[in-house]
Amino acid sequence: MAFSNYKSISTVINKFQIKYVQSNFMLELGFPVEQSFKEELDLLFTDGVIVSAQ
User: DSSP of 4-50, one letter per residue?
Assistant: First the structure.
């Protein structure tokens, strides 16, 4: 069957008898963030100011 015939993950899992496990494989890690970055991010979210660098 052509790749384009598979319309969903469940179709592939059923066709090839795959065991599918959904889980959180990435762990959340804390890290320090500079105050200037927090302020710039806050400005971006509140005012929608995006600096375009070329």
Answer: GG--SHHHHHHHHT--------S--------HHHHHHHHHHHHH---
Whole-model pTM? Answer: 0.37
Place of tokens 């710039």: 40
The domains of the chain are located at 30-54
- From CA 17, how far away is CA 44, in angstroms rounded? 47
pLDDT in tens, the chain (54 residues): 677 888 888 888 888 888 878 888 888 899 999 999 999 889 888 887 666 655
